[in-house]
Amino acid sequence: MNIIFAVVVLSSLTVLTFADPDGVLPALLSGAKDAGVLCVALLSSYCLWLGVMRVWEKSGVTSALSSVLKKPVKKLFKIESDETAESVCMNLSANLLGIGSIATPYGVKAVTLMEKEKNREYATDMLLVVNAGSLQLIPTSVISMRVAMGSASPYDIILPTLLCTLFSFCLGVFLVRTVHKIRKKQGGRVGFSTRNSAKKGRATA
User: Fold this and answer.
1) Residue 117 DSSP class
2) Residues 132-158 as b or e (16 or more Cβ within 10 Å = b)
3) Max avg pLDDT among 71-85, 88-102, 140-154, 175-189
């Protein structure tokens, strides 16, 4: 990915140098300024929600949220451990607030704990798809970027984002459950990790 970005930047600079030599430096300065403004806007938003989630953890809101969502989460992901369910709940909560970078550590922890679960392959597949669908009530990151870029109505993205992510979430859950049911009926083992292990085994043989 770094190579791709480097190639894109160098190619753009080369073309701009020949097309508009006088505009190269102003474009670089303007881009740096916009990037700085965007970083500050995202930083303030992330600091706010990180603080809120930390307060939630210390005040017991996280535990209360987990107890409320524990049953549906366990049913959806087919997991048994309370600790795993709590990590999944925090991951989903961060995604609902549109701050995926905060959701990542909880997702990694949940995947690690899922290795001990009986239905670990189904659970990890479901978690992967749910995070990809990323149901969002408040797209915090997008709103912050729109504010930083001077949008006249930065919050009008909330309803379209909610509808789109709700559709992708429901579709993803339906497909994961359907695929696993089909493979189970066919007598085959399911899950991305299992298929990768099988490929490695054949390659070793």
Assistant:
1) S
2) ebbbbebbbbebbbbbbeeeeebeebb
3) 71-85
Taking CA atoms, 31 is separated from 2, 36, 105, in Å, by: 19, 9, 31
Query: pTM of the prediction?
Result: 0.65
d(CA 165, CA 42): 21
Terminal-residue alpha carbon distance, the chain: 33
- Two tokens, residue 152: 């006249």
CB-based contacts of 90, cutoff 8 Å, min separation 6: 53, 62, 66, 103, 106
Measured CA to CA in angstroms, residue 147 lies from 47, 57, 77, 155 at distances of 16, 29, 36, 9
Q: Map residue 137 onto helix, strand or coil.
A: coil
Residue 62 confidence (pLDDT): 66
Element spanning 98, H or E: none
Q: How far, in Å, CA of 148 to CA of 63, rounded?
A: 34
- Cβ 124 vs Cβ 193: under 8 Å: yes
